Amino acid sequence: MTEHWDFYPLRVDNKPASTFVDLGIAESAPLAHLPHMAYVRLHMNDPRPDGLSSREEFDALVRVEDALQQALCNEGVGYVGRCTTNACRDFYFYIANAQGWDARVQQAMDGIDDEYEFSCGTRPDADWSVYFNFLSPGEEDRQCMENRQVCAALERHGDTLTIAREIDHWAYFSSDERMRAYVAEVATQGFQLRVARDDVEGERSHCAQVWRIDVPAYDEIDKVTLALFDAARRHDGDYDGWECPVEAEAQDRSEA
């Protein structure tokens, strides 16, 4: 598959969950030669009280994942993601031939099955609906993933992510009226307009750049950006990320 993987939290059947997914394969999926979805469900031995994986079991779970990939993945089997919830970790694959999957998994788990209870199965899924409708993040989840990436970039430049500073945000709209309505709405939340443009190429030719003083911390920036994301969507627009100065000895800028 690809090297572009990321994780995001969610809820599955109203329970906490965490998904780790190959985002890069979405550009070429569905792959016609892999028309079957296959899975391996591992029942964790030492989950957290909320049903997610624990630090104590981390190494063991990595060992199982590595063993499955090494034994199963080839031109006819692609590993696309995993979901952890309700004291289970489900590994998802797309495969060319469903026949014999159970036997292949049993062989891959040889030496591990005495440590873990597991089950496996397949189903036809030529459209890769499980990948696109279950494993892949939604738009808001993608924004939170991008937020983490920007925060990590700031840290790499020496930022402590504890200092409040001006943070700029961009959103794009199809008309001046919708853009102005968005600016008026977010102004009630303390955002100020820095630049308004109407010369952007494409269908959404109007851009509003707004700013507010906030702390770009992992546990705070999602609330800021998702409020703007929702406001832009209410006015038929697209929120397009944020940028702020690095608060470190060497000043720089990072953006999403």
UniProtKB/TrEMBL annotation:
SUPFAM superfamilies with a match to the protein in the record: Hypothetical protein VC0424
All copies of domain DUF695, residue ranges: 4-135
Residues in Regulator of ribonuclease activity B domain copies: 146-244
InterPro entries found in the cross-reference section: DUF695, RraB-like_sf, RraB_dom
Protein name stated in the entry: DUF695 domain-containing protein
Species annotation: Piscinibacter gummiphilus
